[in-house]
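Lab notebook, entry 384. We have the chain sequence and a SMILES string for nicotinamide-adenine-dinucleotide, and the next step in the workflow is to get a structural model of the bound complex before anyone spends time on docking refinements. Request logged below.

Task: model protein plus nicotinamide-adenine-dinucleotide, output structure tokens.
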Amino acid sequence: MNTMNAAIIGAGFMGPTHTEALRRIGVHVRGILGVDPTESKKAAATLAIPQAYQDWQEVLDDPDVQVIHITTPNRLHYQMAKQGLQAGKHILCEKPLAMNARESGELVELAQKSGLVTGLNYNMRFYPLVMEARHKVSSGQTGEIHAIVGSYVQDWLLFPTDYNWRVLAQEGGATRAISDIGTHWLDMVQYITACKVTAVCADLKIVHPVRKRPKGEVETFSGKVQEVQATENVEITTEDCGTVLLRFDNGAKGHLWVSQVTAGRKNCLRFEISGAKQALYWNSETPNEMWIGSREKANDLLLKDPGLLSDTGRSAANYPGGHNEGYPDSFKQCFKAFYDYIAAGDLEAPRSFASFADGHHEILLCDAIYQSHTQGGWVEVEPS
Ligand SMILES: NC(=O)c1ccc[n+]([C@@H]2O[C@H](COP(=O)([O-])OP(=O)(O)OC[C@H]3O[C@@H](n4cnc5c(N)ncnc54)[C@H](O)[C@@H]3O)[C@@H](O)[C@H]2O)c1
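Result returned:
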């Protein structure tokens, strides 16, 4: 039985998603903070959370909260993670960790000194078959990796009338499609293969240099059923899509295609990893099957069935074969790993969830990708 209490900061798409996942693993959600007391109150009532915080200081001062989940827009992550650690709280932060490498580097140092557990919600690692892919590579079944390719594509920002805080550099960061979804892919393939990206060559594109901003706030993804309302033009400097060539530290080559403007692709992350013995292909829109390619025998289609998985894959699968596990389950598994880690009390133990150091590496990657795009050519990723 988990005895820790969590506070959720942010009440948009992610706040309720975190709340639901925490309840599934028996963590008590003590309170929630929105952008103002009205949003806090509304979210607390809707989600049946006991405490609607008035402001951020009240969260920091709450002696009954041990863990803070940061689910606010990106520009707030650094300050909130820093102040949360200073107040003695464990921190589970949404990605990306910060707006730039100076901030994320400082957070890594603070986290190390704090003696607290910190994690970043790269939840997509926790699909059972992603874990299984990691097992196949680490156990040598896939062989030496020579290529890692794939994409992460969505369509929710296809039209110039689609708008969200993410499209503004001052809210989300200098890169958008790369930082918002590309980093999920980059985190995932590096987690599976243990190969680190060392250099990038990027070519990004802004499809809509001007977007129509509704007068009033827009929640993530709610824009899919948009009502016509008054808008104003806003200039956009963040990319809608783009390609990145990749070099990995073991000599493997790769490429990533990201897009938030590909019609019909709702939320589609795909990877194909080629090794000396086999290849692995997985698609987040059919997450309960993984294709395993062979040269000398028929290919396999592995279904997510705990009975067919290794201990690693099985650790993230809670339902029998044929009972699909998907996006919300990946949060549950990520948070379970995080809270079990706190309970175990060993900060030196390896962690399956992404650390602040992993988050810092992702920011350095975003910086290198942006630099490559603006200056042209290959850019080495700064060591983290
Ligand atoms: N891991 C994932 O799969 C995933 C998916 C979506 C978003 N995210 C990340 O989660 C974060 C939030 O994204 P979202 O899609 O939920 O955004 P959102 O706009 O839907 O929600 C953000 C919430 O934060 C609130 N907020 C703003 N300023 C605040 C403040 N000062 N104090 C408290 N609350 C404040 C807003 O009112 C809103 O309720 C982003 O960093 C994003 O990158 C991760």
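Notes for the group: The mean pLDDT is 96. Worth checking against the assay data. Residues 9-15, 33-35, 39, 71-74, 76, 94-95, 121, 123, 165, 180, 219-220 surround nicotinamide-adenine-dinucleotide (CB under 6 Å).
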